[in-house]
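Sync notes, pocket subgroup
Present: LS, DG
LS reminded everyone that the earlier model was apo-only. Rerun requested with FE2/S2 (inorganic) cluster included. Inputs:
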Amino acid sequence: MYPIEQVEALNPEVTRMVVRAPEIAKKIKPGQFIMLRIDEQGERIPLTMNDCDPEAGTITIIFQAVGATTIRLAQMKAGDALQDFAGPLGNPTELEGAKRACVIGGGLGTAIAFPQAKWLYDHGCEVDVITGFRNKDLVLLEDEIDRHSTRQIIMTDDGSNGNKGLVTQALQQRIDEGADYDLVLAVGPVIMMKFVAATTKPYGIKTYVSMNPLMIDGTGMCGGCRVKVGDEYLHACVDGPDFDGHLVDFDDAMRRGVMYRSFESAAREGRDC
Ligand code: FES
């Protein structure tokens, strides 16, 4: 069993949880994820690491209570324990060698993008972090990003924190101002990643996107997490989750995402699919 050490609500929808998992904490790198199961009857869900402390033997995850399992998970308390917490899974993000990076997080994607920004900043890279949220109440990790970035630009739909508008507008503005990025990394809604990749493509800036499709086994066996990249289908769980944003077929990913929505609502409401 994997004890939960801390639980904290970051906003009405999002929870930060620190879980004791010393073996994973020793090995996990930015971009990798874990699969957890609350109890023996529970479904396995993938969650990307937000932070880790190898000395304390802990992994921090941040999640939104949107599905049947994440709603249950958000109700758990420090002192409870998880049945399974397996990882690290997936490949670490390729960050070595970047000198001027822009890390972009949309909503909860900010929590997933944070370890990459932190790693880059701690390794001497100049890092702009652009984040996007619906409004000021949903802004995540503002203080943490301030400490681990060269520049933080917050965008909100209503302008209630930072600037009003989209992350892609901020990205285009920074490029127009002469930001000479050698790496852009985007994590968030598929539509956001699609337009980030479209923004950087004319400039030939290396762009990674972190794909988060439905995952069932996390081992490349079930085929649930297929992503069309160039001419081939790859598995987000074993080939990703990061892919070249200029090759991903985002429209195919959005079509596949919609296919599973009715199953998720049925699970949330306790109905048969
Ligand atoms: Fe099953 Fe990736 S989660 S193949």
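DG: The pocket of FE2/S2 (inorganic) cluster is lined by residues 215-218, 220-225, 235, 237 (CB under 6 Å).
LS: The mean pLDDT is 91.
Action: DG to write up.
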